Queue: 2 jobs
Job 1
Amino acid sequence: MKTPGSITASFVVSMAASVGLVALYVLGGGPQLEGVLLGFALGGLGLGLAIWATSYMNVPEEVEERQLMSEPKPGAEEDDTSPLPGMEDLSRRKVLLRLLAGAGGTLAGALAIPAFSLGPNPGDDLFRSGWAAGDRLVNLEGRPVRPADIPVEGIETVFPEDKVGLSDAQTVLIRVDPDILRLPEGRGDWAHEGCLAYSKICTHVGCSVGLYRSAAQQLLCPCHQSTFDVLTGATPIFGPAARPLPQLPLDIDDEGYLIATGEFSAPVGPAFWNVDRGS
Amino acid sequence: MIKWVESRLRVGGWARKGLNKIFPDHWSFLLGEISLFTFIILVATGIFLTLFYRPDATPVIYDGPYLPLKGQEVSAAYESVMRLSFEVRAGLVMRQIHHWTAIVFVAAVVVHMLRVFFTGAFRRPREPNWLIGVGLLIFAIGMGFTGYSLPDDLLSGNGLRIAYSVMLSIPFAGPYLASLIFGGEFPAEAIISRLFVMHIMLLPALIIGLISVHLAILVRQKHAQFRGPGRSERNVVGKPLWPSQTFKSLALLFLTASIMAFMGGLLQINPVWNYGPFKPYITSAPSQPDWYVGWLDGGLRLFPGWDLNVFGITIAAPFIPGVLVPGLLFTVLALWPFIEARMTGDRAEHQLLDHPRDMPLRTAIGVAGIVFFTVLTLEGGGDVLSITFNIPVEAITNFFRAALFVIPAAAGMLTYRICTNLRGTEFHPFRRAPGVRLRRTPDGGFEEV
């Protein structure tokens, strides 16, 4: 029988590539060449087998009879769906069967209870951000911030002193021209020299609202493009976020540094069923 | 050797019968095989990765050869992925093959499912295997999501944050469920090791179990087949498993693995060193998930900013596009064989497959579904489209908000028309008309062209 050249070539290429892979590993490797050699090693095998199967195996088509699933086996004496022996007796034990089901169900419930060890009861964690009255605003390096440190149209990520990196407390500090501010009522003294502090956690699904269109005074979330108007208290003006970014009330301490005078105006982060209930 | 085994186990007859199983020859029947083979490649490369990965959120200082991150605080998990990528010989190629194969795996499962859908292969008696297939699709997506979250990089960390927030939005149960699954309020340290257990133990066990049942049912019920000469509801025509089909399947396994190896070597994927370690106060732009999650992200982007208030209960905006709609879609998908049987009243056993045009309504609904999914996926990359084509992102979102309803409906109606038309003319659009072409010769006879 003549040996087909194309299959021979495929298998030889595969072998050569495999040997090459070993050599490459010894010499120090490299992802591109590793991928290519592995590709040829596997591909040579695959191609050879494919040519062999399609061009050099003359297997005729065969017809296999099929028994329909919905019909009983021909010649079967018993109906396979008839009740098993003893079922009649069992089905009369109604009380015991119910007790068995009850005991099984109760056991399953008891065994599922340890699932509550997986995480704490959220309690009012979702309503707290980590800010407290008197906390200085510090930047990522931990330095406290004065209004003059932020240029008008500037933005900085700040945290409470000693809590740098705390997720719930992440806050953007933005400075704008105080004359164009239109903050909601009651927040007149929350901005000092045009400094505004908003929670950096998007109220949609919690990404960090890190893009600032300074010319339009808009904060934009990179994940789903929720857009907030900084001048009016970070109210959502486009995208899927429904609630404003909570605002942090600010003041200035004796040394001229910005401090928080209390918690955010609302729970930070995405909404949940009782977010409006307060705590 | 064979005699030794046979004299102890007596499986020869059973094995011979198995090797004689008939495989109808059609290219579309290979899609399921590709799903299986990509899963095998995932297991093989995944075992290698598992030996180097550390499911640990403890902060460490990076001190490896990648200079931009030197001296930065990263998690031990991220550090182990960096070490695997830059210091373990053959580590990066394995990681990239694994990631590319995961992407192709989910795609193969989806395309296989579409084949089964459009040919009506889910009809009685194959409803059980359709249900198992829907389960496999869900677990495959779960595998993908848990897998690409493991490196604890900036991009996947934000993906986890979004998943947490969507869970949080479920009325009543949300805050508790999210806390139980993540081990506390986001970002909880426990989640990395939990994702690892899900990704290398729970989900693989479920997938391997379901694949086994899927294949056992396939053998029991035998393949369905397209109509053709000699083919009926009561037979199956094709070639036996041994030898040609075995060789073909092995060839497909190696060719699939070969393409995965080329891609893993030459095409960069998930460069976690570019994204950097996860910090909860940073989000990069643009940020996109892997393709099979993009439609969910698109839904989140597209839904208007409504926190509905129902009797004092807040239905947070992510709930409807993130939980309710996907839940309904998967329910309809799973129940489709029963829905269609009720619509058509056809409850008979079907061993012969439909061509898509044979059932215009089913095909139209399927095409509308694909287009719906595509619009959501495109919206999932809305910010990328905005940068690429220099169109405001607001315009793109508003366009897709309308397109989500209009385009699938139009595509469905058009498909319906095309199908009914094709059914009337009996011509296959991509094949020559049956018969031979004749030409009149000058002397009045005929000859074949």
Job 2
Amino acid sequence: MQRVGNERQTTIRPRSGGTDSAAPIISVRGVTNRFGPQLVHDAVDLDVYPGEVLGIVGGSGSGKSVLLRTMLGLHRPNAGDVRIEGMDITRMSTEELLAIKRRYGVTFQHGALFSSLTVAENIQLPMREFFSASERTYDALAELRLRMVGLPVEAGRKLPSQLSGGMVKRAALARALALDPSILFLDEPTAGLDPISAASFDELIVYLHRSLKLTIVMITHDLDTLLATCNRVAVLVDRKIVVDTLEGIMNNPHPWIREYFHGPRARAAHLARGAR
Amino acid sequence: MALLLSRGFHRCPSYVLLESERRENTLIVRLKGEWRIDNLAQIESALAGVPAGVERYIVDFTGIETIDLSGAWLLHRWVRSMGDRLEIAGAPPAHFDFIDDVLQLEPKERVPPPEARLSLREALAWLGRNTLEWFRQTRDAIGFFGRVTVNGLRAFRSLKHLRVPSIARHVYETGIQAIPIVSLIAFLISVIVAYLGAQQLRQFGAEIFTVDLVTVAVLREMSPLLTAIIVAGRSGSAFAAEIGVMRLNDEIDALQSMGVNHFEVLVTPRLAGLLIALPLLTVIADAMGLAGGALLSSVLLDISLDQFLPRMKDALAPTTFWAGIVKTPVFALIIALVGTYRGLQVRESSRELGRLTTVAVVQSIFLVIFADAVFAVVFVELDF
């Protein structure tokens, strides 16, 4: 991973800015989400282009997770539609949706590893569900995922409860990669990690994104992660979404966005990046 | 299979992924088609089907239409397993570079190496570990009982430690909410006993003794035992599951870190609540059981209520009712202690939670029946 580590300091952003010419892989159109009297999303639009890393940020309760769940087809919006490669998932049958979901890899905030299965069994679960093969093949495929995310092969025999926080995040990512997805959704991938583990996880995301040409959508509160990995940033404010490149969003005049990117913690993050 | 197809996967059982052609000592393997995880079984059988025992292999990758990482990985492993005997013709798939790279990676996280197994020393160590574990569990159980006793005594010394609202909640949940099901079951069981008893007693022309049978059976045995078993299934499992989930969420650690005695908050109120609720539930079950007996007697045996009640009074010894009720606090104690103890034992995983909840129910039912047997013997000896 040394080579990747070097790259991180200069973080080249492939295809940033040039993405708009391609057709979006996911397009959210006019999605409204309402919980009782509380309006969370008011007809929001969002496009995710192939090969980009899109960060979603927003205050607590601004509906980041709901937006993610809507894109995953886990939550049906009150209005609007979500298209994955032109197909509207809000009007799909369960079976069509399952076929689409196979192309997704998702990691959840707390890992959501199945606690009664070992890490390797966790990774193999979707494979076993969809494809038949011998135990040796399953083991081989699990080994690749473990290696990809920087876990030793022995970690596959551990139960999730025997892993450290950083390893749980990596194991969750390994499971998300089980079916060779083209789109990865990461919910708070670095939350709860120490800065060194978080930085190393950022490297991993950049590395996988670059090597596998994955499209990544991530929710994050971690400014360092945002700065290190994302091409574009979607900010959820006032029940709407503001999307721009990282540079563009930093110069956005909206008070909340200014506070977010230029508040004391943000300054520390910029400073840290400047120093490297 | 039909379902899998409808999920829209490309599946073609006779799909050919590789062709091989033998030229003297050389086997030329031409790969083609889709080397994707969707064709996992085909990839596996294709690679396994390459003839072995050939001096040289030449692999041609140019025919591959699509390949994903899983396909590339299996192919890469196969190529590696062939070693020097294999030559590559045509550019290898792009993923090979990535895989080479991944294989070079040092794991970012380390785990301790797994312990060696199956040696004699291991077997001895296992035996020792399990024995110690057994002792530890016994010690823990005794410790648990001691802490419950201490906390219980303290709770009755001062109102502050008694936590009346919490006890009230548990009386409501374990007692009042259980009234319908306990009543229904007591009623039905007593109807069954009366019905079957009447059939036997009719042969002797002694149908009137059905009343005695129902009265004694319900008050002494049926209603305390059945009520305890229902409550063990309902509330024993709930105790174990509630406390177990709190354990999994670190809520108990949170309580302890705040300096709150978790026994006082979680165990004692449940124990006290059940100690209040179970005897009262049993009284209700007694009443419903007698009502069931009376109903059946009047419908099937022509013993009207006017006859039933005096007969019942005759059948009742002064101790009959109390012989049933006196057992219920013991049952309550067993159910609450087992449920909370197993709940507190939950560690780590949700599977553990399910297992211990089951253990709690099974053990508390067993112990209730066992205690009932002891009571039966003791009551006979005491002529109670």
